[in-house]
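Write out a record, fold above all:
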Amino acid sequence: MGNPPEKIINEQTIWKRGLYMLLFAFIQGVAKFVTFIVAVFQFLTVLVTGSTNAKLLQLGRSLSTYSYQIYLFLTFNTEVLPYPMGDWPSD
């Protein structure tokens, strides 16, 4: 007569995941913008001082790892939720 309980749970789970995917797609756009800003500042730092800024290197590395985690989630390669639902990536 109706859907079996397992089917309903799976449908609820996939819709919940879909909402997370929308959220992380938006966050990915913000992360891309911030990464671009970091790259511009790093370029200007090298242009002015002749060397890279260690803090910007670290921020760029963690933003890259974070973007990778989001892409893994969006492409169904992992069920682990990226930050802010999970931990911020560490080196």
Summary: DSSP finds two helices and no strands in the chain. The helical segments are 5-49, 54-74.
